[in-house]
TrEMBL record:
Family to which the UniProt record says this protein belongs: Belongs to the ETF alpha-subunit/FixB family.
Cofactor or coenzyme needed: FAD
UniProt cofactor note: Binds 1 FAD per dimer.
Biological process annotations from GO: fatty acid beta-oxidation using acyl-CoA dehydrogenase
Gene it is expressed from: FixB
Provenance organism: Pelotomaculum thermopropionicum (strain DSM 13744 / JCM 10971 / SI)
GO molecular function, one term: flavin adenine dinucleotide binding
Protein name (database record): Electron transfer flavoprotein, alpha subunit
Residue numbers binding FAD: R197, T222, R223, G254, V255, S256, G257, Q258, I259, Q260, H261, N275
Domain Electron transfer flavoprotein alpha/beta-subunit N-terminal: 4-170
Pfam family, one: ETF
Keywords: FAD, Flavoprotein, Transport
Protein backbone atom coordinates (compact mmCIF):
# COMPACT_ATOMS: atom_id res chain seq x y z
CA UNK A 1 0.00 0.00 0.00
CA UNK A 2 1.28 3.42 -0.86
CA UNK A 3 -0.10 5.42 2.05
CA UNK A 4 -1.06 4.27 5.52
CA UNK A 5 -2.32 6.46 8.38
CA UNK A 6 -2.52 5.78 12.06
CA UNK A 7 -4.65 7.88 14.41
CA UNK A 8 -4.34 7.58 18.17
CA UNK A 9 -5.18 9.62 21.25
CA UNK A 10 -2.88 7.38 23.33
CA UNK A 11 0.88 7.52 22.61
CA UNK A 12 1.57 3.91 23.68
CA UNK A 13 -1.07 2.63 21.26
CA UNK A 14 0.39 4.86 18.55
CA UNK A 15 3.77 3.12 19.00
CA UNK A 16 2.09 -0.29 18.62
CA UNK A 17 0.14 0.78 15.54
CA UNK A 18 3.24 2.32 13.95
CA UNK A 19 5.15 -0.94 14.36
CA UNK A 20 2.39 -2.86 12.59
CA UNK A 21 1.62 -0.21 9.97
CA UNK A 22 5.20 0.03 8.72
CA UNK A 23 4.90 -3.60 7.54
CA UNK A 24 1.89 -2.70 5.38
CA UNK A 25 2.72 0.52 3.60
CA UNK A 26 5.53 2.42 1.95
CA UNK A 27 4.53 5.76 3.52
CA UNK A 28 3.28 6.07 7.10
CA UNK A 29 1.74 9.20 8.57
CA UNK A 30 0.79 9.28 12.25
CA UNK A 31 -1.84 11.57 13.77
CA UNK A 32 -1.13 11.49 17.47
CA UNK A 33 -2.16 13.27 20.64
CA UNK A 34 1.08 14.40 22.28
CA UNK A 35 4.21 16.53 22.12
CA UNK A 36 7.53 16.44 20.24
CA UNK A 37 8.88 13.64 22.45
CA UNK A 38 5.88 11.50 21.51
CA UNK A 39 6.41 12.39 17.84
CA UNK A 40 10.06 11.32 17.95
CA UNK A 41 9.06 8.00 19.53
CA UNK A 42 6.42 7.34 16.87
CA UNK A 43 9.04 8.02 14.18
CA UNK A 44 11.43 5.59 15.84
CA UNK A 45 8.72 2.91 15.58
CA UNK A 46 8.23 3.49 11.87
CA UNK A 47 6.35 6.72 11.06
CA UNK A 48 7.67 8.93 8.26
CA UNK A 49 5.52 11.93 9.15
CA UNK A 50 3.90 12.82 12.49
CA UNK A 51 1.11 15.35 12.81
CA UNK A 52 0.55 16.30 16.44
CA UNK A 53 -2.92 16.87 17.78
CA UNK A 54 -3.60 18.58 21.09
CA UNK A 55 -6.53 18.01 23.43
CA UNK A 56 -8.79 21.03 22.78
CA UNK A 57 -9.66 23.19 25.78
CA UNK A 58 -13.25 23.94 24.85
CA UNK A 59 -14.34 21.09 22.60
CA UNK A 60 -13.80 17.37 22.13
CA UNK A 61 -10.82 15.66 20.48
CA UNK A 62 -13.13 14.21 17.82
CA UNK A 63 -13.48 17.75 16.49
CA UNK A 64 -10.30 16.97 14.52
CA UNK A 65 -12.63 15.11 12.12
CA UNK A 66 -12.85 18.20 9.88
CA UNK A 67 -9.06 18.49 9.74
CA UNK A 68 -8.65 14.79 8.95
CA UNK A 69 -11.21 14.97 6.16
CA UNK A 70 -9.27 17.83 4.56
CA UNK A 71 -6.03 15.86 4.89
CA UNK A 72 -7.64 12.73 3.43
CA UNK A 73 -8.86 14.75 0.46
CA UNK A 74 -5.30 15.62 -0.53
CA UNK A 75 -3.32 12.64 0.79
CA UNK A 76 -5.70 9.82 -0.27
CA UNK A 77 -4.61 7.22 2.31
CA UNK A 78 -5.44 3.62 1.43
CA UNK A 79 -5.48 2.28 4.99
CA UNK A 80 -6.32 4.16 8.20
CA UNK A 81 -5.63 2.42 11.51
CA UNK A 82 -7.40 4.02 14.48
CA UNK A 83 -6.76 3.21 18.14
CA UNK A 84 -9.88 1.52 19.48
CA UNK A 85 -10.26 3.80 22.48
CA UNK A 86 -13.48 5.55 23.50
CA UNK A 87 -12.53 8.59 21.44
CA UNK A 88 -10.95 6.56 18.65
CA UNK A 89 -14.05 4.42 18.05
CA UNK A 90 -16.20 7.51 17.76
CA UNK A 91 -13.77 9.23 15.40
CA UNK A 92 -13.33 6.11 13.22
CA UNK A 93 -17.09 5.74 12.72
CA UNK A 94 -17.51 9.40 11.77
CA UNK A 95 -14.51 9.31 9.45
CA UNK A 96 -15.77 6.18 7.67
CA UNK A 97 -19.22 7.71 7.20
CA UNK A 98 -17.79 10.93 5.77
CA UNK A 99 -15.32 9.12 3.48
CA UNK A 100 -18.02 6.57 2.53
CA UNK A 101 -15.66 3.67 3.13
CA UNK A 102 -15.73 0.44 5.16
CA UNK A 103 -14.81 0.42 8.86
CA UNK A 104 -13.66 -2.90 10.36
CA UNK A 105 -13.76 -2.79 14.15
CA UNK A 106 -11.35 -4.37 16.62
CA UNK A 107 -9.31 -6.37 14.13
CA UNK A 108 -6.97 -8.93 15.70
CA UNK A 109 -5.00 -9.78 12.54
CA UNK A 110 -4.04 -7.60 9.65
CA UNK A 111 -1.97 -8.37 6.56
CA UNK A 112 -1.70 -7.53 2.88
CA UNK A 113 -2.05 -10.49 0.52
CA UNK A 114 -2.28 -10.42 -3.28
CA UNK A 115 -3.31 -6.78 -3.28
CA UNK A 116 -6.02 -7.37 -0.70
CA UNK A 117 -6.21 -6.47 2.95
CA UNK A 118 -6.89 -9.59 5.01
CA UNK A 119 -8.31 -9.06 8.48
CA UNK A 120 -9.62 -11.18 11.31
CA UNK A 121 -11.86 -10.18 14.20
CA UNK A 122 -13.62 -11.99 17.02
CA UNK A 123 -17.41 -12.21 16.92
CA UNK A 124 -20.26 -13.68 18.96
CA UNK A 125 -18.62 -12.82 22.26
CA UNK A 126 -15.48 -14.75 21.45
CA UNK A 127 -17.17 -17.89 20.09
CA UNK A 128 -15.95 -17.44 16.51
CA UNK A 129 -13.46 -15.65 14.27
CA UNK A 130 -14.55 -13.68 11.25
CA UNK A 131 -12.15 -13.45 8.30
CA UNK A 132 -12.56 -10.39 6.09
CA UNK A 133 -10.96 -9.46 2.77
CA UNK A 134 -10.98 -5.86 1.53
CA UNK A 135 -10.08 -5.15 -2.07
CA UNK A 136 -11.39 -1.59 -2.29
CA UNK A 137 -9.75 1.33 -0.56
CA UNK A 138 -9.64 3.38 1.59
CA UNK A 139 -10.58 1.21 4.54
CA UNK A 140 -10.60 2.16 8.21
CA UNK A 141 -9.63 -0.43 10.84
CA UNK A 142 -9.84 0.02 14.60
CA UNK A 143 -7.23 -1.78 16.68
CA UNK A 144 -7.51 -2.30 20.44
CA UNK A 145 -4.51 -1.38 22.63
CA UNK A 146 -1.99 -4.23 23.10
CA UNK A 147 -3.22 -6.12 20.02
CA UNK A 148 0.20 -5.83 18.36
CA UNK A 149 3.69 -5.66 19.82
CA UNK A 150 5.30 -2.28 19.34
CA UNK A 151 8.66 -3.80 18.37
CA UNK A 152 12.07 -2.25 18.85
CA UNK A 153 12.65 1.48 18.18
CA UNK A 154 15.15 2.34 15.47
CA UNK A 155 17.23 5.37 14.50
CA UNK A 156 15.08 7.15 11.96
CA UNK A 157 14.41 10.66 10.65
CA UNK A 158 10.95 12.02 10.06
CA UNK A 159 8.92 15.19 9.72
CA UNK A 160 6.83 16.66 12.54
CA UNK A 161 3.93 19.08 12.14
CA UNK A 162 1.34 20.57 14.47
CA UNK A 163 -2.32 20.36 13.46
CA UNK A 164 -4.78 23.10 14.32
CA UNK A 165 -8.52 22.70 14.69
CA UNK A 166 -10.95 24.18 12.20
CA UNK A 167 -13.57 26.03 14.24
CA UNK A 168 -15.03 25.04 17.60
CA UNK A 169 -17.73 22.64 16.50
CA UNK A 170 -21.17 21.99 18.03
CA UNK A 171 -19.92 20.42 21.28
CA UNK A 172 -18.56 22.69 23.99
CA UNK A 173 -16.59 21.24 26.91
CA UNK A 174 -17.52 23.06 30.10
CA UNK A 175 -15.14 21.28 32.46
CA UNK A 176 -12.69 18.39 32.53
CA UNK A 177 -11.95 16.41 35.68
CA UNK A 178 -9.07 13.98 36.04
CA UNK A 179 -10.22 10.40 36.50
CA UNK A 180 -9.10 8.82 39.74
CA UNK A 181 -5.97 6.82 39.00
CA UNK A 182 -6.44 3.05 39.03
CA UNK A 183 -4.46 1.17 41.65
CA UNK A 184 -3.50 -1.52 39.16
CA UNK A 185 -2.92 -1.82 35.42
CA UNK A 186 -3.56 -5.47 34.59
CA UNK A 187 -2.89 -4.83 30.90
CA UNK A 188 0.78 -4.17 31.70
CA UNK A 189 1.23 -7.06 34.19
CA UNK A 190 3.51 -9.94 33.13
CA UNK A 191 1.84 -12.35 35.54
CA UNK A 192 -1.82 -12.34 36.58
CA UNK A 193 -3.36 -14.64 39.19
CA UNK A 194 -7.07 -15.06 38.51
CA UNK A 195 -9.72 -15.90 41.06
CA UNK A 196 -13.17 -17.19 40.20
CA UNK A 197 -16.43 -18.09 41.88
CA UNK A 198 -14.95 -21.38 43.03
CA UNK A 199 -13.59 -19.37 45.95
CA UNK A 200 -16.34 -19.57 48.57
CA UNK A 201 -15.05 -17.17 51.22
CA UNK A 202 -13.81 -13.60 50.77
CA UNK A 203 -11.09 -14.31 53.32
CA UNK A 204 -9.60 -16.72 50.76
CA UNK A 205 -8.50 -13.75 48.62
CA UNK A 206 -5.53 -13.37 50.94
CA UNK A 207 -3.87 -16.51 49.57
CA UNK A 208 -4.38 -15.32 45.97
CA UNK A 209 -2.80 -11.99 46.86
CA UNK A 210 0.11 -13.77 48.55
CA UNK A 211 0.63 -16.03 45.54
CA UNK A 212 0.54 -13.05 43.18
CA UNK A 213 3.06 -11.20 45.34
CA UNK A 214 5.44 -14.18 45.38
CA UNK A 215 5.21 -14.44 41.58
CA UNK A 216 5.61 -10.70 41.08
CA UNK A 217 2.15 -10.44 39.56
CA UNK A 218 -1.28 -8.95 40.09
CA UNK A 219 -4.66 -10.40 41.03
CA UNK A 220 -7.49 -10.45 38.51
CA UNK A 221 -10.93 -11.99 38.78
CA UNK A 222 -14.09 -13.10 37.04
CA UNK A 223 -17.13 -10.85 36.76
CA UNK A 224 -19.12 -12.32 39.72
CA UNK A 225 -16.20 -11.68 42.09
CA UNK A 226 -16.12 -7.99 41.15
CA UNK A 227 -19.67 -7.06 40.17
CA UNK A 228 -21.85 -9.41 42.22
CA UNK A 229 -19.84 -10.08 45.37
CA UNK A 230 -17.83 -6.82 45.29
CA UNK A 231 -14.82 -8.65 46.73
CA UNK A 232 -12.46 -6.92 44.29
CA UNK A 233 -12.76 -3.62 42.40
CA UNK A 234 -14.14 -3.69 38.86
CA UNK A 235 -10.75 -2.65 37.47
CA UNK A 236 -9.61 -6.23 38.23
CA UNK A 237 -12.45 -7.93 36.35
CA UNK A 238 -11.23 -9.85 33.27
CA UNK A 239 -13.54 -10.62 30.37
CA UNK A 240 -15.37 -9.42 27.32
CA UNK A 241 -16.74 -6.36 29.10
CA UNK A 242 -13.82 -6.11 31.52
CA UNK A 243 -10.08 -6.00 31.01
CA UNK A 244 -8.40 -7.93 28.19
CA UNK A 245 -4.88 -9.00 29.07
CA UNK A 246 -1.82 -10.58 27.38
CA UNK A 247 0.47 -11.55 30.27
CA UNK A 248 3.30 -14.05 30.01
CA UNK A 249 1.47 -16.18 32.61
CA UNK A 250 -2.18 -16.33 33.62
CA UNK A 251 -2.66 -18.66 36.57
CA UNK A 252 -6.24 -19.04 37.75
CA UNK A 253 -8.15 -21.06 40.29
CA UNK A 254 -11.86 -21.56 40.82
CA UNK A 255 -12.54 -20.24 37.30
CA UNK A 256 -15.02 -22.34 35.34
CA UNK A 257 -14.01 -21.01 31.93
CA UNK A 258 -17.11 -19.25 30.64
CA UNK A 259 -16.49 -17.77 27.19
CA UNK A 260 -17.05 -14.25 28.48
CA UNK A 261 -14.07 -14.64 30.82
CA UNK A 262 -11.92 -16.56 28.33
CA UNK A 263 -12.28 -13.66 25.87
CA UNK A 264 -10.31 -11.48 28.28
CA UNK A 265 -7.46 -13.92 28.94
CA UNK A 266 -7.21 -15.99 25.75
CA UNK A 267 -4.13 -14.14 24.47
CA UNK A 268 -2.06 -14.94 27.57
CA UNK A 269 1.18 -16.64 26.52
CA UNK A 270 0.75 -19.45 29.08
CA UNK A 271 -2.48 -20.33 30.90
CA UNK A 272 -2.43 -22.51 34.01
CA UNK A 273 -5.71 -23.40 35.69
CA UNK A 274 -6.80 -25.11 38.88
CA UNK A 275 -10.30 -26.52 39.25
CA UNK A 276 -11.83 -29.44 41.13
CA UNK A 277 -14.09 -30.24 38.14
CA UNK A 278 -12.14 -32.36 35.68
CA UNK A 279 -14.55 -31.27 32.93
CA UNK A 280 -14.18 -27.54 33.58
CA UNK A 281 -14.19 -25.61 30.27
CA UNK A 282 -11.18 -23.57 31.39
CA UNK A 283 -9.02 -26.68 30.90
CA UNK A 284 -9.73 -26.58 27.14
CA UNK A 285 -7.89 -23.27 26.80
CA UNK A 286 -5.16 -24.04 29.34
CA UNK A 287 -1.58 -25.02 28.57
CA UNK A 288 -1.35 -26.77 31.94
CA UNK A 289 -4.02 -27.60 34.50
CA UNK A 290 -4.42 -29.18 37.90
CA UNK A 291 -7.57 -31.04 38.95
CA UNK A 292 -7.78 -30.23 42.63
CA UNK A 293 -9.24 -28.12 45.42
CA UNK A 294 -7.93 -24.57 45.26
CA UNK A 295 -7.88 -24.48 49.07
CA UNK A 296 -5.21 -27.18 48.91
CA UNK A 297 -3.37 -26.35 45.67
CA UNK A 298 -2.85 -22.61 46.23
CA UNK A 299 -1.28 -23.05 49.70
CA UNK A 300 0.93 -25.80 48.27
CA UNK A 301 2.13 -23.46 45.50
CA UNK A 302 2.81 -20.72 48.04
CA UNK A 303 4.77 -23.14 50.20
CA UNK A 304 6.82 -24.32 47.21
CA UNK A 305 7.60 -20.75 46.12
CA UNK A 306 8.72 -19.82 49.62
Amino acid sequence: MNKVWIISDHPETAYELAGKAKTLGTSLTAYVLGDNDVAQRVISFGADVVKLMQLPQTTVWEQYLSVLLQEAGTENPELILVASTCRGKDLAAQLAAKLDCPCVTDSKKLEEKDGKLVLQRIIYGGLAYQDIECNTFPVIVTIAPHTFEKGEPEEKQGEIFNLSLIGEGPIQVVERKAKEAASVNLAEADIVVGVGRGLTQQSGLAMFEELAKLLGGEVGCTRPIAEDLKWLPEERYLGITGKQIKPNLYLCAGVSGQIQHVYGIRESKVIVSINNNENAPIFKVSDYYIVGDLEEVIPALISALK
